[in-house]
Amino acid sequence: MTTAKRDTYTPETLLAVAVQVFNERGYDGTSMEHLSKAAGISKSSIYHHVAGKEELLRRAVSRAIDGLFGILDEPGAREGRAVDRLEHVTRRMVGVLTSELPYVTLLLRVRGNTETERWAMERRRDFDHRVADLLKSAIAEGDLRGDVEARLATRLLFGMINSLVEWFRPEARGADGAEIADAVVQLAFRGLRVED
């Protein structure tokens, strides 16, 4: 006598599968059928955990966004000179990206086609503006160069960090998150700091 396979998925494990499929196929190119096949469960089992595909997207990008905004609440991001706070935020952004790589990858790939994607893009912009304000404060305090426009410097900094989603693979041997964070801080802030 054969026994039917029990649904052993939790909302967290289902989310991990959904993020993998969204990153492989794109959110728009993913159907509930794709998700059920990847999870090895029926579509109705997925609906037992979530209302639909967009709820999975919302949960996934929220995880990445919450990680990023959590950085801004840390003492290292709130106390001290702006340049030191900016370095802390930069290090921690790399940490969040490397520890939550699939979720941040998905966040960086949303294009605004759904309400959730538009919400995620707005939250990303808010985070970007807060980091840009920190960079502007460091310039105003005289610790970072003023001859590089703050918005451009911020975009370049984010570009360097966000590019990790294209090449960083935790399972591969090589630099870990802490080593990458050190390299990013050295490259970015050596060039941005005012020479003594």
Could you explain the architecture of this structure?
By secondary structure, this protein is an all-alpha fold. The protein has two domains: 11-50, Homeodomain-like (Arc Repressor Mutant, subunit A), CATH 1.10.10; 60-192, Orthogonal Bundle (Tetracycline Repressor, domain 2), CATH 1.10.357. The protein is 71% helix and 0% strand. The longest helix has 26 residues, at 115-140. It is elongated. The model is unreliable at 1-6 (pLDDT under 50).
CATH architecture of the largest domain: Orthogonal Bundle
**Low-confidence sequence ranges:** 1-6
Shape: elongated
Domain module tally: 2
* Average residue-wise pLDDT: 91
Order of SSEs, N→C?
HHHHHHHHHHH
Q: What level of helicity do the residues show? A: over 70%
- For CATH, the homologous superfamily of the largest domain is named as Tetracycline Repressor, domain 2
How large is the radius of gyration? Answer: 20 Å
Number of strands: 0
In CATH's first tier, which class of the largest domain applies?
Mainly Alpha
- Termini separation comes to 79 Å
What fraction of the residues are assigned to beta strands by DSSP?
Answer: under 5%
- The computed structural class is mainly alpha
CATH level-3 fold name of the largest domain:
Tetracycline Repressor, domain 2
Number of helices: 11
Largest sheet: none
